[in-house]
Amino acid sequence: MSDERLARLRALLDARLLDAALVSRNANRRYFSGFRLGDAEGPTSGWSGSLLVTRDAALIFADSRYTEQARQQAPGWELVATTGPIAMELPGVLLRHEVASLGAEAAVMSHADWSALAAAAPGTELHAIDAELVPLRAIKTTAEIDAIERACALTDACFDHLVEFVEPGMTEEMVALELERFFRTQGAEGLAFEPIVLAGPRAAMPHGRPSDAPIERGNVLLIDFGCSVDGYRSDMTRTLFVGDVPDDVRRYHDAVREAQQAAIDAIAIGANGQDLDALARERIEREGVAAYEHGLGHGIGLETHEAPSLRRSVASALEAGMVFSVEPGIYLPGVTGIRIEDIVALTASGPQLLTRSTREPIAIG
To answer: The pTM is what?
Structure first.
């Protein structure tokens, strides 16, 4: 249990005039207590594994599936064994701890559970604190950045392997399976997200899923992938050339690479993510094509998408300790798609690339 992390959570109680916080999001549970559930396991756990933090107590609720795991992974937390739904068991605990005002994650708790809890604990007001919890994980410690860097290093190694592995005639799904096999056999905790492997015109889908489509000469192969190491994630995208590609595809790749570099060069403490996004878009639009519609980047850590957000619709001042992606792209439906993505840690001395694979064009096959 991190005393410093709990202190910041308790400071939030003071700021919001709350008596306690109920923490249920997988990444937040792990961040504050060390208790770990997988992405797929979280929704099936109900409210088991949830944390209740007051100014002088730290409780973790767990049913019989998770009690031993909670003891091992969350030492120092008071374990409360549960057997029933939240509305049946939490009100008594709130009453014992004199919780009249409770902060909870409305985006995680179902509407049915929220309503049932409100009805079962009429003496406790419920308040959504999702937005207030976000910045608590935005600034990474040295240990967190080290874990992200190790995940990025494994992703770089996987990319080197894929460059040697991929051949024309393979399908997108074959490449996706191979990168997962590599991560698993090289010690990754798991995938950071379902990989995106798209060939030829299919690469114009920013978040398309791998299919049985073949990888053909003259096309691009877009690979967006990452892994998890000690809970912390990586995220990298490279666009490979499969044999000779048209000159305009090479030109678009150069534009995306230069757009990304322009944004990286402008990263500094206090920089606005909107301005970085505008720099990247301006370089791409000089090619006479529309720039990406998604944001330039997103924070990364225990989740693949965290604060900060680097996009034209959101003002965000960057701070030392933030770790985020920079991923401009060009998408031409029915023609091609190109994206280059790297993870950057903002340090007191400036931006540091954590993914280090070459961004120069690579031809395979």
So the answer is: 0.94
